[in-house]
Automatic annotation (TrEMBL):
This is ATP-binding cassette domain-containing protein. Residues 3-229 form the ABC transporter domain. Keywords: ATP-binding, Nucleotide-binding, Transport. GO terms for molecular function: ATP binding; ATP hydrolysis activity. Belongs to the ABC transporter superfamily. It holds the Pfam family ABC_tran.
Amino acid sequence: MSLEINALNKSFGEKHVLRDVSFQALKGSALGLLGRNGAGKTTTLRIIMDVFPSDSGSVTYEGKPLRTAGVSFGYLPEERGLYPKKKIGVQLTYLAMLRGMDRRAAVAATKKWLEKVELSEYFDKNLETLSKGNQQKVQLASALMNDPEIAILDEPFSGLDPVNAQLLKDIVRDLVKEGKIVLFSSHQMSYVEQFCENIAILHQGEIVLDGNLQQIKRSYPRDRVYIESLEPSEMLTAKVRDFAGSNGLSSAIIDITPRLSGCELKLASPQMRTSLMKTFAESPIQLERYEVLEPTLEEIFVEKAGEDA
Ligand SMILES: Nc1ncnc2c1ncn2[C@@H]1O[C@H](COP(=O)(O)OP(=O)(O)OP(=O)(O)O)[C@@H](O)[C@H]1O
């Protein structure tokens, strides 16, 4: 079961902001919609949420237009929409009732979600008395307290410290486990990498890459190796350079760069990664670690969306 975004186009005046944007968000998984500032992420999410229409294209769930598919949503918009001068408990309860809960269920959901985001003691406080990050967590609670099938979160990590970012990651993981569709926009690759099964990268209004993150990573050549010994990085690098030079490996190892506490080797071909491990095992260089590197999401993102037109 999936949410399908099909060939969306959108212009604001002369500016063509989305060009044939298509991707699919699957049930029971999180999809990270990635892009630089102005790439078109918020515009895409607003069209999905029907804040305004697209010029062409469609958004469907199970093949039906989303509006008529009878599926429930939670939306965390970029411009956060709660009342700063009202009590948190009162406004969350009110919102839950607006979305169809009776008062008793709405109060229970408010309490449950304030506990989940670790803000129970703020039930009777005005929203404006909370820090920016804590206000963000209240907004998140308001988006999710009606137990939506599809959660659409625009930049949910912005303003959260690492502990609260972890809390959000746990919440998203739970939603995924419960079989929900989670779609969120971000330019924070490290968070996306940790729990998104799927990604879609928008660049200047076009999808330049989308699909399963592991499969995308595997499609890159595995031609980089990271090694460590007990010696400092610079010393290991020098030793490996000498070893490669005196053992005819200079054309097989095309680059040797010190990294962290070891060094990274760029190989002439991915096939060499196993034979090289054997070569090291038989050499005087005592390695503590030999790891074939995959590209990070950040590297993939910079490759796909780093260039200006
Ligand atoms: N209502 C609007 N009127 C005119 N231009 C708009 C409007 N909304 C968005 N844009 C333009 O559309 C482009 C895409 O904006 P959008 O907010 O979707 O990007 P984004 O990827 O979410 O960026 P950010 O990461 O900075 O939030 C930008 O150039 C923006 O200026």
